[in-house]
Amino acid sequence: MPIVFVHGVNNRDGDSYRENALSRNGFLREVVAPKLGLGADQLTLISPYWGLHGARFAWNMAVLPETGAGFEAFGGDAEAEARGRVAGLLATSPLSGDILADAQRDFPAAVELLFAAAAAGADDENDARELARAYLACARYAEQNPRPAWLAQAAPGNFADQLLYAAEDGGDERFGAGGILDRLKEGLSRLAHAVPDKASSLAVRLVRKSLNASLTTFIGDAFTYLARRRNEDGSNGPIVQVVLDALHQAEQARSAQDDKLIVIAHSFGGEIMYDILSHFAPQLRVDCLITVGSQVGLFEELKLYLASDVQLPPDPPQGRLARPAAVRRWLNVFDTNDVLAYRLEPVVAGVSDFVYDTGYSALGAHGGYFERPSFYRRLAARLAQA
Amino acid sequence: MSLIFEQVQPAAGTHVLAIGVGRYPHLLGGDGRLAARPLGLKQLQSPPVSLQHFLRWCFAPADAAAGSGFSNAGAPLASVEALVSSAQPLLLDTPGGAQQVDTATRDNIQDAFERWLQRLRSHADNIGVFYFCGHGIQVSDHYLLAEDFGRHAGLPWLNAFDFSNTVRAVEREIAGSVFYFIDACREISRDVAMTLGADPHALLAADLSRKLSRQSQTVILATGEGELAFAPQGGQVSRFTAALVGALSGYCGIREAGSASWNVSGENLATAVRSLLEFEALLSPGRPQVSEQQVSGTAVPLLRLNRVPQVRVMLDLAPQQYRPRYELYLESLKGGRVAQSLLDQVFRVDLPRGFYDVGALDPSGVLPALLHAEEELMPPAYALTLRCEP
Amino acid sequence: MKQIAVRLNYASMSQGPDGVSATPTFPVRLLDAEGAVLAEGAASVDQPAVLQTDDRQEQVFVRLTWPSGRTETQRLALRSGEEAYSVEFSDSRIAANEWSAWAIPKLNPQTPLLRHGSRLNLDLELARFDKVWLRLWKFAGGVWTLQPLQPQATYRNDTAWQLDLELDAAAWLLQLGGSKVIWRFISLPGGGPARVLITPRDSDDPRADALKVVVTSHRGEAETLLEFLARDALRSAKTLAGSAALAQQLFAAKLADPVSAVAGAYYLLRANPQHNQPLDWYENLYREFRWLPDAAIVYCTRMLREGLRDAPARRAVRKLFGECLERGWPVFGEGVSLLQENAALLRGSGKRAENPDYARVMALGAARAWAGAAASFYGRHPDEPSALQWVGMPGAPRRHRLDPALRYSATPPGRPASVKEKTAKPYPPAGPSATNVDRSRNAAEPAAVAPADAVFLLGSIPR
Question: Where do the record's region annotations for Disordered lie (chain C) (predicted)?
Answer without folding.
Answer: 407-445
